[in-house]
Amino acid sequence: MQRRLDDMAGWVLLTGAVVLHRMVASRAARERWQGRRNAALRGAYRRGVLVPELAARLCLSEGWVRQVLNGRKPAEPPEVGEAA
Known about the structure:
By secondary structure, the chain is mainly α. 73% of the residues lie in helices and 0% in strands.
């Protein structure tokens, strides 16, 4: 029963990380939201969600996700407007 609750909590945290990832806006707000997103990402990982699944749902590389999980601050991927 506990394993199933941890799995469900992990998926809820992952969904929260995805929502936060997509809601970032201004520079100050972006840093606050990214901190929350990264915390949710770490929580999902601690509850058993694997790195490939985290990376796939966030549309980021596995290396980037591993940097977040290890406590490093990776460079954020360029936004759509900046890439053009």
